[in-house]
């Protein structure tokens, strides 16, 4: 059941990305181009996603545990550290260069563009490299 | 359908997916966290793989149902796609999340870390696009 529920969640997520326009880098870059022909679509995506999640989480957390696990695994870190700041900035630069954040990158694989496969493989390399940065430095 | 309406509906679906994953498995729907956990040798590979298969398959299912692809063509050349991928992977790993984990799930929880990360990556992405499009005149092809 865990597998089926995760698959359904992924399908819903991918359909949402597709409907939202996020599987088109031109739309994403159009939102990021505030000094050009600005395209506000991503604001609507964020508003719909954040509001739905905010309401839904509160409803879900009334229960004592998830359906198929022992506890809710929610990050409890609150510290603002250099890793968070530098990581977010580097991610933003990469997002601005090509117009792909991780979800749309995966969702775009079925489009058959070879450079999307290269981007996803490079992203995996980046995850691997990032995991090797010692916790105290950076 | 107006693109703004379809984007709002898409956003609601992303939110429903996040709520569903929390209700069923108690997990944050953060793509970078779910996928990078596979490389980190997390002991719970199955649900991560199942979720990612769903994300990859969804646009393809839409294509079968509607007969038109929702996937846009990349707008930068292969070397830039590779560089962008490394930056996105490294940055999301270091920063502990991406647009979904920080931007949607974290902001919905009003997490301080996620609010800051989201403000920073959106600002950095907008600044990058500004430099590329309006100062450099594009990256070429």
From TrEMBL, chain A:
<keyword id="KW-1133">Transmembrane helix</keyword>
<feature type="transmembrane region" description="Helical">
    <location>
        <begin position="112"/>
        <end position="130"/>
    </location>
</feature>
<protein>
    <submittedName>
        <fullName>YeeE/YedE family protein</fullName>
    </submittedName>
</protein>
<keyword id="KW-0812">Transmembrane</keyword>
<keyword id="KW-0472">Membrane</keyword>
<dbReference type="Pfam" id="PF20398">
    <property type="entry name" value="DUF6691"/>
</dbReference>
<dbReference type="InterPro" id="IPR046513">
    <property type="entry name" value="DUF6691"/>
</dbReference>
<feature type="transmembrane region" description="Helical">
    <location>
        <begin position="44"/>
        <end position="61"/>
    </location>
</feature>
<feature type="transmembrane region" description="Helical">
    <location>
        <begin position="82"/>
        <end position="100"/>
    </location>
</feature>
TrEMBL record, chain B:
<feature type="transmembrane region" description="Helical">
    <location>
        <begin position="115"/>
        <end position="136"/>
    </location>
</feature>
<feature type="transmembrane region" description="Helical">
    <location>
        <begin position="47"/>
        <end position="65"/>
    </location>
</feature>
<feature type="transmembrane region" description="Helical">
    <location>
        <begin position="12"/>
        <end position="35"/>
    </location>
</feature>
<keyword id="KW-0813">Transport</keyword>
<dbReference type="Pfam" id="PF04143">
    <property type="entry name" value="Sulf_transp"/>
</dbReference>
<keyword id="KW-0997">Cell inner membrane</keyword>
<keyword id="KW-1003">Cell membrane</keyword>
<comment type="similarity">
    <text>Belongs to the TsuA/YedE (TC 9.B.102) family.</text>
</comment>
<keyword id="KW-0472">Membrane</keyword>
<feature type="transmembrane region" description="Helical">
    <location>
        <begin position="71"/>
        <end position="94"/>
    </location>
</feature>
<protein>
    <submittedName>
        <fullName>YeeE/YedE family protein</fullName>
    </submittedName>
</protein>
<keyword id="KW-1133">Transmembrane helix</keyword>
<keyword id="KW-0812">Transmembrane</keyword>
<dbReference type="InterPro" id="IPR007272">
    <property type="entry name" value="Sulf_transp_TsuA/YedE"/>
</dbReference>
């Amino acid at each position: 059941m865990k597998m089926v529920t995760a698959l359904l969640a992924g399908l819903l997520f991918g359909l949402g990305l597709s409907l939202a326009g996020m599987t088109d880098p031109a739309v994403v870059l159009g939102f990021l181009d505030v000094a050009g022909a600005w395209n506000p679509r991503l604001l609507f995506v964020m508003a719909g996603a954040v509001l739905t999640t905010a309401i839904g989480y509160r409803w879900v957390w009334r229960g004592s545990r998830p359906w198929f696990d022992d506890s809710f695994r929610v990050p409890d870190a609150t510290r603002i550290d250099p890793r968070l700041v530098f990581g977010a900035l580097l991610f933003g630069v990469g997002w601005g260069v090509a117009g792909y954040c991780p979800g749309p990158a995966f969702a775009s694989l079925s489009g058959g563009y070879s450079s999307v496969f290269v981007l996803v493989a490079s992203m995996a390399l980046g995850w691997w490299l990032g995991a090797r940065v010692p916790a105290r430095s950076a | 359908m107006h693109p703004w309406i379809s984007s709002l509906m898409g956003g609601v679906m992303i939110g429903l997916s996040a709520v569903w994953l929390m209700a069923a498995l108690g997990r944050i729907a953060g793509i970078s966290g779910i996928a990078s956990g596979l490389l980190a040798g997390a002991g719970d590979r199955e649900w991560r793989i199942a979720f990612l298969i769903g994300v990859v398959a969804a646009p393809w299912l839409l294509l079968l149902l509607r007969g038109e692809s929702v996937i846009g063509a990349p707008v930068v050349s292969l070397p830039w796609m590779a560089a962008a991928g490394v930056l996105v992977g490294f940055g999301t790993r270091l920063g502990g999340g991406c647009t979904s984990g920080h931007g949607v799930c974290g902001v919905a929880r009003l997490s301080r870390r996620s609010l800051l990360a989201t403000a920073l990556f959106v600002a950095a992405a907008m600044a990058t696009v500004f430099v590329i499009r309006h100062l450099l005149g594009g990256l070429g092809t």
